[in-house]
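hi! just following up on the protien thing from before. the input was this:
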Amino acid sequence: MSAPDPRFFGYGSLVNLATHAYHNPRPAQLAGWRRVWRHSTLRDVAFLSVERCAQGTVIDGIIADVPNADWAALDEREFAYLRRIVTDAVAHDGPRAETAVYEVDGGVLAPPSTAHPILLSYLDVVVQGFLRVFGPDGATRFFATTHGWDAPILDDRAAPRYPRAQTLTPDETATVDAALSRLRANIIS
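and the predicted 3d structure came back as:
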């Protein structure tokens, strides 16, 4: 019997299964890491990343097979990130296989700013994924386990800049807007 294909743990837009066609996606949790908003000097806007964190910290996400067990295409999609092996920190209901997570390269980090904001169209995609995979409680956990909400968020819904933008239902949009209101997010135009 051959070993299972390697997998990746997605914790942001990859949770939204409409943004990709990776095989065998399934819900998973990553322990000892937290989700955080970061800006990379390799990109114009802020994106989600992860960083090691105290034990007891767990974030939701998905795992899926690396296409053809070849990391090249996934590394290209995640070009501003470094791949970290986290096999022993990931829990899911499937067979064990080498699993990696992508973390923004510390050498290219810069703080999110009005010049490099979070795109609301990107956040919408992420939250839609959490709602569809984990339900309303999963979306609530996403907001609670993500750090860096003081970063500015550019409202680009009318003309999405995120290349894999999705159309949200009115309920999905209301979930995002209500959470941002509770966080007193800095929404900019």
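The first helix runs from residue 72 to 77.
The chain has a mean pLDDT of 93.
cheers
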